[in-house]
Amino acid sequence: MATETIGWWGVPLAIIAGTIRGSAPFLFVSLGECLTEKSGRINLGLEGTLLLGAMTAYATSYLTGSPWLGVLMAGVAGMFLGLIHALLVQQPKVNDIAVGIAMIIFGSGIAFFFGKPFIQPVAPRLPAIELGNWSDIPSVKAALQISPLFILGLAIAPLMHWFFRSTRWGLFIRAVGDSPEAAKAMGISVNKVRMLAIIAGSFLAGLGGAYLSLYYPGSWTERISSGQGLMAVALVIFARWNPIQCLYAALLFGGAQAIGPALQSVGVTGYYYLFNASPYILTLLIMIITCSPKRTLRGVPGALTTQ
């Protein structure tokens, strides 16, 4: 986003705009992973789900002319990978981490294979909500363009928080995640609850992929996810398995991602690659801090500590 017309005042504006644009994929994937981990399972394969969702959304939008149908199909593609993941991790003596790595390779492989014909064509993109028409400054108008998918993510976070605390199915998921044995004693089907949680979480991750290819950056390439699916796992740990805190953490990661482009827009090109690496550095720092053996993770589902 250009900031020449307002100079250095445009840097914080560009960071805010970049935070809004860049946080949505983190938000959808982290909410999906939060839902999955609340049931006592880990899905590292959401990186592959993000890629497959991005490819499916772009291909569907190009072939049908409807970006919203592309969003829906991205969620369906995510559910497909989630179903496979759920079926595999329910088998005896199967490790979640190993299955997740396999699903990254599988999901990204499918996306790359079927996505080759859609790298060059231009597909219809999702519309933006224009909140800056009151201003004559182009950078302000661009900063206040918000995707409806971002607003949907903002709504899902408190809804999921309420779901876990105030609904019967939310109680089932928490019970299964905290103590599968106790859940079985209550007559809850552990496998059924976990399967539905994984599939629903993968659906949300697929929506994150649709955001990438149909809004920001708004194209399909094989490197479009940039590891955001894997970073979301660290984000969920940082957020203490709380959907509201997942929202805050996603905004933090999105803001870190926006620093480099914002400074570059006013001519600061030194250490550009270091600023671009800030989300990855932040992920590494979070993992170091939260994985200390001297610290107890507050809010962690009990079943995760036994894997």
TrEMBL record:
PANTHER family: ABC TRANSPORTER PERMEASE PROTEIN (PTHR43370:SF2), SUGAR ABC TRANSPORTER INTEGRAL MEMBRANE PROTEIN-RELATED (PTHR43370). It comes from Floridaenema fluviatile BLCC-F154. CDD domains: TM_PBP1_transp_TpRbsC_like (cd06580). It is found in: Cell membrane. This is ABC transporter permease. The keyword Methyltransferase does not apply. The chain crosses the membrane at residues 6-32, 69-89, 96-115, 142-164, 193-214, 270-289. The keyword Transmembrane helix applies.
